[in-house]
Design brief:
The complex is a heterodimer. Chain A is 54% helix and 16% strand. By secondary structure, chain B is an alpha+beta fold. Chain B has a 3-stranded antiparallel β-sheet with strand order 1-3-2. In chain B, strand 2 and strand 3 form a beta hairpin. Classes of the chains: A alpha+beta, B alpha+beta.
């Protein structure tokens, strides 16, 4: 690089000499023709024209000219920035904030939704799903797009488009026994799962055919889990771990960096044939063995395309096979779909994440916009200060394009320095966040993120650089040189632009703050909401006696004894239930009045409870009666329905005594319970019915309510141990369930609040900057007013009202925009109406208050102007 | 603006012909920038005056294109001067431009005659 500068310098000198020689010869000619030397020198110079311009246009012809100019402009820009470190630091920091937030959020978004799976040939791997049309009846465990085992086998054995295929299903409820039992997650996989993903074992082996054809309790550990739970034990292969009371032999450990296909990497992988073992907590009417159920969707599938096969061809191939399967289910049409391999291959979840992600990206984009408006403002102020410099450069022959290029180079330099800093901080923050959250996902820098950040930097530099550059160089230079003159008009024009930028900042800030306000209000409402049942002092104990080979009779005895011992403590009362509130649902097909389902099948949620369930949780029965102990002991076809179900199935009638079928089983309604929020805290339950225990339906959870604040968890666990030391119990509280339920809202509101405050800080800096500048520019005017008798408070009011005008306009623009956005995304708001007046008004007031402070600080300076000094100035 | 008061008899240089004129001037031997300008002026009987703002960029452009080469030599008044000379490529280019020019002149003349 350096030789170029040296070379350039020499060429410059040569050009100088060439021109000097030309002038010299011209002068000599004139002297010889009899002109006095002084006059000749002047005449030759005049004849030559603008030496600088000739030099400049000549330099333009040098082939590496544009690069040279860039280097020159960059050097010049760097020097200018170094001369005003305050301005440079503020701008770079603002850009870094804006770009950093964007880059960080994009990294997460990209990692989940766009980045191909980080495996060998990840771009050759596709996810396969099914969508059903027409009249059909399909069971599912997971989501509607999943495959049944039979469908997967059909695809796997008969397709000609994939070199390998694999299917998998997540299992979340696994308990690893040990000194402290640990909840772990696993993924059930078919044999070729690791082969498709090119995952290798650091120890041991992959699963083999025998382990898939018949259930054998073997497991492969993830590398991270092996490291942190087993200390990287090199002799782990062949050792046993106890999962849900079954002993599993460890046959392999994956190589580091292998994360599988699920968004949250599991701790272990199990052969698919173990599904009945690890999902033994499923109660009828759900099937026990998923692999044998041909019409049960529960599997996600992946395949590696054969070389030369496009995913379109692959889909056509599978579509053909799917049509064959539809023959067995008249009226059903299966449509095969494919997605490129990412951590998000379920189309429903993908849609949700894409919508949510787009909203978040829009919000962070707005923050960057505010940051850019701020920098644009600072640049406008600077342009005013540099007016003389620019005017001089224009008058000695610089073209406007050249000056704009110079100014844009400066703003681009700012943008790139800021973006670089932002990228660094985003990477740092992500690394820290990753450790704090214990995520093993790879969030490091990649080409996507780098390209996105670069794009942001370019966009930012244009956003804040172009307008000030155009304005600063507007061809109006004659006045600028005359010191005063048109400066007033110019100042007026640029101050109008600055006010517009403040308006823009405030409007955006208002949108973000209102969004945050709505989410926070929703969260507060959710937490203070009465779900219709007791939340405080309620303990939920889950046990799984099924996994201990307890028969139904033995289990019933175990629970009787357990409840008796727990309830022997003063003020404690326990009930049994298949599902605890806010932890999941069971669904069944319901046909009212025993009629066959004519006009489509209706579904309702159900729970299986002991008679005192309603008592313990404080759910009122508004009609009929509760289950009796006798009913709980035998097989009585009785049910209690909630109000929503009574309304939906027997509108305008008394539900008591009505009959219905759930699945194939009959039931008669003996009571009606109030509607509560047991499924989703943000709304009352839909149709729901309660059945009571029968000897064949083992409960899964004990619900215990205490009259005082005693912590019961330890005591309950001890009682379980006394009864059977091998049984594992986990105790948590109803509040835990509630917290888990609201965690997405909590996360969203935190993020929104962070972004809102960030943009508020930026807007406050903007308002402060503009007011301070106006005060410094109007010192003279303020002096005159004071000399004419204006009071200090009058001056203060005047300055603040000047500053607050764009703020008020910004709020007036921002509020309706926020309302429109809120209405458009109302489905994402929980626990609050989209036009909640408190959120809107409180946030507008908060914003106005901060703006007032931001303008009051510099405006106060105006009141300290000494009229005498101000008038003598200039 | 340089050269404001122009001789009314002077003719405007046709766009794109300056390069050809420079090459033609250098056909008689190496010359420095001032000399090239003077030569064109003299051979056009003062009807063509080349602005330095066009001349020097053109010289440097032709040099960058490899049509002319430069060398620093002592000038007639014993000062260091940059002399430009035609290269082989420049000679070929000049021949091409000349025949193109002749054709153009002939064609235009014919059109103007019949009009």
């Amino acid at each position: 690089m350096w030789w170029r500068f040296w070379n350039r310098k020499r060429r410059d000198e040569e050009l100088e000499e060439e021109i000097a020689h030309d002038l010299f010869l011209e002068t000599e000619d004139l002297v010889q023709s009899g002109m006095p030397r002084r006059e000749a020198e002047f005449a030759s110079r005049k004849d030559f024209g603008n030496v600088l311009l000739v030099k400049e246009t000549t330099r333009e012809t040098w082939s590496w000219r544009s690069l040279e100019t860039l280097a020159q402009d960059l050097l010049y820009a760097a020097r200018t920035l170094r001369r005003s470190p305050g301005f440079a630091a503020t701008s770079i920091l603002a850009v870094a904030l804006g770009v950093g937030v964007n880059s960080a959020i994009f990294t997460i978004f990209d990692q989940i939704a766009f980045r191909p799976l980080p495996v060998k040939d990840g771009d050759r791997i596709v996810g396969i799903y099914e969508t059903f049309h027409g009249q059909f009846d399909r069971k599912m465990h997971g989501n509607t797009h999943m495959l049944s085992y039979a469908e997967f086998q059909n695809f796997q054995s008969r397709n000609r488009v994939f070199s390998e295929m694999a299917a998998y299903a997540e299992v979340r409820r696994l308990t690893l026994a040990g000194l402290t039992p640990e909840a772990v997650s696993g993924v059930l996989v078919t044999r070729d799962y690791f082969k498709v993903l090119g995952g290798t074992m650091i120890l041991g082996r992959e699963f083999v055919d025998e382990e898939l054809s018949s259930p054998r309790p073997v497991a492969i550990l993830s590398n991270a889990f092996w490291q942190h739970r087993f200390g990287g034990d090199p002799a782990i292969i062949g050792k046993a771990i106890r999962l849900n009371q079954t002993l599993f032999t460890i046959v392999g450990v994956t190589a580091p960096g292998f994360l599988g296909t699920t968004a949250t990497p599991p701790q272990l992988w199990l052969p698919l044939s173990l599904q009945p073992v690890v999902m033994a907590d499923l109660a009828p009417p759900e099937p026990q063995n998923f692999m044998a159920a041909d019409n049960l969707g529960w599997l996600s599938a992946i395949g590696k395309l054969k070389p030369g096969i496009q995913s379109r061809q692959a889909r056509a191939g599978l579509q053909f096979l799917a049509a064959g399967m539809d023959a067995a289910y008249p009226g059903r049409i299966t449509e095969v779909g494919m997605l490129p391999s990412t951590f998000l291959m379920n189309p429903d979840a993908r849609t949700v994440v894409l919508i949510g992600g787009t909203l978040v990206m829009a919000a962070v984009g707005l923050v960057l916009f505010v940051a850019c408006a701020n920098v644009a403002n600072l640049l406008l102020v600077r342009a005013t200060l540099r007016q003389r410099e620019i005017a001089i450069r224009l008058s000695i022959g610089a073209t406007r394009g050249r000056l704009i290029r110079q100014l844009l180079t400066e703003s681009t330099l700012l943008a790139f320095l800021g973006a670089f800093l932002g990228l660094l901080s985003a990477q740092k923050a992500l690394a820290i966040g990753r450790t704090l959250a214990g995520v093993s996902n790879d969030l490091s820098l990649n080409a996507h993120v780098l390209a996105y950040t670069l794009l942001l930097a370019v966009a930012a530099s244009l956003m804040f650089g172009l307008v000030p550059a155009l304005q600063a160089t507007s061809p109006n230079l004659s006045g600028a040189l005359k010191e005063e003159g048109s400066i007033v008009g110019r100042r007026f024009r640029s101050s109008k632009l600055r006010n517009r930028l403040v308006t823009l900042e405030v409007a955006i800030c208002c949108i973000l703050l209102v969004g945050a306000g709505l989410l926070v209000r929703g969260l507060i409402n959710l937490n203070s909401l009465d779900p219709g049942f007791y939340v405080k002092r309620v303990f939920l104990t889950s046990l799984d006696l099924r996994l201990h080979n307890y028969g139904d009779v033995r289990a019933a005895a175990f629970y009787r004894e357990l409840l008796a011992r727990i309830d022997s403590q003063a003020g404690v009362q326990s009930a049994l239930a298949a599902v605890t509130p806010l932890s999941g649902v069971r669904m069944a097909r319901v046909t009212p009045d025993g009629e066959p389902a004519a006009d489509g099948v209706r579904e309702a949620n159900f729970n299986i409870v002991s008679p005192n369930y309603f008592d313990v949780l404080g759910i009122r029965l508004i009609q009929g009666r509760n289950f009796t102990e006798a009913e709980a002991g035998g097989r009585h076809p009785v049910a209690i329905v909630n109000e929503a179900m009574a309304r939906a199935y027997w509108p305008g009638q008394n539900a008591l005594g009505k009959r219905f079928l759930y699945g194939p089983q009959p039931a008669v309604v003996i009571g009606v319970a109030t509607d509560v929020r047991s499924i989703n805290i943000s709304r009352l339950d839909g149709p729901l019915f309660y059945l009571t225990m029968n000897p064949n339906s083992q409960p899964l959870a004990v619900i215990t309510r205490s009259a005082d604040d005693r912590p019961l968890a330890g005591a309950i666990q001890q009682i379980v141990r006394q009864l059977d030391p091998t049984v594992l119990s986990s105790v948590h509280t109803m509040e835990d369930n509630l917290e888990h339920e609201t965690s997405p809202t909590r996360l969203a509101s935190r993020l929104a609040l962070l972004l809102g405050l960030l943009s508020l800080a930026l807007a406050a800096v903007g308002i402060y900057g503009v007011t301070a500048y106006v005060v410094s520019q109007r010192t003279h005017e303020i002096g005159v007013r004071m000399a004419l008798g204006a009071g200090r408070s009058g001056i203060l009011r005047w300055m603040i009202s000047e500053a607050m005008r764009p703020v008020c306009i910004g709020i007036a623009i921002g509020l309706p925009l926020a309302a429109a956005g809120s209405l458009a995304s109302s489905s994402l708001l929980l626990g609050v109406r989209p036009l909640d007046p408190v959120a809107f008004l409180a946030m507008a007031a908060f914003l106005a208050m901060i703006a007032l402070i931001a303008s009051w600080v510099p405006a106060r300076r105006a009141t300290r102007v000494d009229p005498m000094i101000a008038l003598r100035y200039e | 603006m340089p050269g404001k008061h122009q001789d009314p008899n002077q003719v405007e240089l046709l766009q794109g012909t300056l390069d050809m004129l420079i090459l033609r001037t250098l056909q008689w031997g190496p010359q420095h920038g001032h000399g090239v300008g003077q030569a064109i002026r003299r051979s056009s009987a003062d009807l063509l005056k080349i602005e330095r703002g066009s001349l020097y960029p053109a010289l440097h452009r032709l040099e960058a294109q490899g049509l002319i080469a430069s060398e620093w030599k002592a000038s007639e008044l014993n000062r260091r001067a940059k002399y430009y000379a035609l290269t082989a490529a420049g000679r070929k280019q000049l021949a091409k431009e000349q025949s193109k020019w002749k054709l153009l002149v002939k064609t235009i003349a014919r059109v103007m005659r019949t009009a």
